[in-house]
Amino acid sequence: MKKILKVEQIQKYYGNKDNLTKAIDDISFEVEEGEFIGIMGASGSGKTTLLNAISTIDTVSSGHIYLEDQDITEIKEEEIAQFRRKNLGFIFQDFNLLDTLTIEENIALILTINKVPEKEIDEKILEIAKKLDIENILQKFPYQVSGGQKQRCAACRAIINQPKIILADEPTGSLDSKAARQLLEIMEDMNRTMKATILMVTHDPVSASYCNKILFLKDGKIFNRIEKGEKNRNTFYSEILDVLALLGGDARDVR
């Protein structure tokens, strides 16, 4: 399989020499194209900092992060926005939809910015909206649709540009259990049928059980890694709970 992401001995410090906090402590791992990887850990373990570094929202103190052959730690600040538009897809907990745009316009935004021809945009949106079952709400505004439909729109927007990797930060955090399950099934389907490479931060072991590999962080380091392999989701869920128990505390309270 093709290596899509390589994280190489990254460290991240916050503060100054009198009050220094190490958020990431020498983390290294690789992601192959088409993997669906979960990142778990307690509050302060470094999982969101790690995702922010990969997404170029934050910078590392040392080490390197490669997306395919490009070292993203070396990208110039004025080139970061273009890099994100071309290579990354995002699914946020709070949707990040623009209320003044229709669902269709929200999905189209990245393609419009990238100057994709209008006819091609329409074709791409219809294709992806059918796959995620929201073609009947494309002309509505975000305030007119349910939370689950908003999240489907966010998923469409994340995949529409065929990014090299999709980054999801607690994507089910603001959804009820039914909408959360629907979104996870969508992400699982995007991974399986569209070969989308997904990196998801989550505190929820149920959400994590949809992934095919989990990285567990503790105190800024990788504490453990497990893979689903041929196991069913229930078996993998139990394995996730076992590792969370080793991390300390009630697994249900790991945030």
Q: Radius of gyration over alpha carbons?
A: 18 Å
Beta strand count: 10
Low-confidence stretches: 250-255
Mean of pLDDT: 90
Strand content: 25-35%
Q: Summarize the helix and strand pattern as letters.
A: EEEHEEHEHHHEHEHEEH
CATH superfamily: P-loop containing nucleotide triphosphate hydrolases
What gap, in angstroms, lies between the N and C termini?
A: 32 Å
Strand order of the largest sheet: 6-7-8-3-9-10
Q: Report the CATH topology name.
A: Rossmann fold
CATH domain class: Alpha Beta
CATH architecture: 3-Layer(aba) Sandwich
What class would the helix/strand composition place it in?
A: alpha/beta
Outline type? globular
Percent helix range: 25-40%
- Put simply, the count of helices is 8
The domain count comes to 1
Largest sheet: 6 strands, mixed
Walk me through what this model shows.
With 255 residues, the chain is an alpha/beta fold. The protein has a single domain, classed as P-loop containing nucleotide triphosphate hydrolases (Rossmann fold). The chain has helices at 47-54, 80-87, 103-113, 118-131, 147-159, 177-193, 205-208, 233-247; strands at residues 3-16, 19-32, 36-41, 62-67, 70-71, 88-92, 165-169, 198-201, 213-218, 221-227. Strand 1 and strand 2 form a beta hairpin. The chain is globular, with a radius of gyration of 18 Å.
